[in-house]
Backbone:
């Protein structure tokens, strides 16, 4: 970090999060105060930084009281090790409760990180998107291209060098069904009509209503970044286009 990016530190937004297994043994998972603060310290040491801009709690913890988890985020901020608190993979109801706790603590909580794409609309169903807009909290989305399903990568089947074949942790062969490939092909035809790539249209769809603050594109090659930023020139969706996307993804 110091060698390459440190001269640009004040121009960068650097984040880290904790909430899944970080080390074996007790207190290495979920959302306890001990785990979150120790995990943040370890992350800062690895990155060679004194603070991050946003520290996220990665997922809701059914065992730890929400007050303890939010208190840990508050301490991270007040200690100067993070500038803002964030939440990831929360639902709308828990977001509302967490926001109230953080407001009482006067902790600057600004953003939610959640999976969201044309193929995964969980945040619309569990109240997260609606509640975030109501409370004035941002949303940054990950997996916006459904691990490549919303690109031209799988339009003709599964390539031998794809993530499905070489990794499979986040996208396995059972999810790349003929039906899903056909959906992507139909969406690709609509994207062509809009003068966009499928990836650009998928990103434009996420940003269509202003509820989403930013998108994590997860690019593995520089060219993908260059292609995806073409979304800034996106055209507004018509009602007919949005209806067509819904009909395609609902299998109608």
Residues:
């Amino acid at each position: 970090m110091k060698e390459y990016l440190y001269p640009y530190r004040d121009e960068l937004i650097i984040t880290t999060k904790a909430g899944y297994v970080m080390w074996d043994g007790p207190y290495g998972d979920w959302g306890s105060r001990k785990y979150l603060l120790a995990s943040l310290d370890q992350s800062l040491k690895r990155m060679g930084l004194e603070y991050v801009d946003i520290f996220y709690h990665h997922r809701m913890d059914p065992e730890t009281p929400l007050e303890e988890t939010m208190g840990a985020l508050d301490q991270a901020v007040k200690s100067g090790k993070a500038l803002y608190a964030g939440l990831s993979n929360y639902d709308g109801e828990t977001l509302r409760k967490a926001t109230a706790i953080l407001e009482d603590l006067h902790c600057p909580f600004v953003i939610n990180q959640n999976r969201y794409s044309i193929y995964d609309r969980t945040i619309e169903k569990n109240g997260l998107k609606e509640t975030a807009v109501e409370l004035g909290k941002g949303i940054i989305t990950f997996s916006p291209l459904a691990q490549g399903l919303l690109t031209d990568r799988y339009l003709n089947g599964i390539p031998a060098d794809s993530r499905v074949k070489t990794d499979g942790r986040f996208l396995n062969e059972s999810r790349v069904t003929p039906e899903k490939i056909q959906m992507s092909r139909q969406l690709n035809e609509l994207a062509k009509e809009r003068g966009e790539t499928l990836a650009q249209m998928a990103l434009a769809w996420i940003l269509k209503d202003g509820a989403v603050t930013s998108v994590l594109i997860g690019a593995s090659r520089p060219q993908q970044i260059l292609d995806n930023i073409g979304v800034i020139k996106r055209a507004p969706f018509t009602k007919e286009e949005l209806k067509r996307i819904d009909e395609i993804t609902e299998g109608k």
Notes: The mean pLDDT is 91. Strands lie at 15-18, 52-57, 82-88, 109-115, 138-142, 214-215. The longest helix spans residues 178-193.
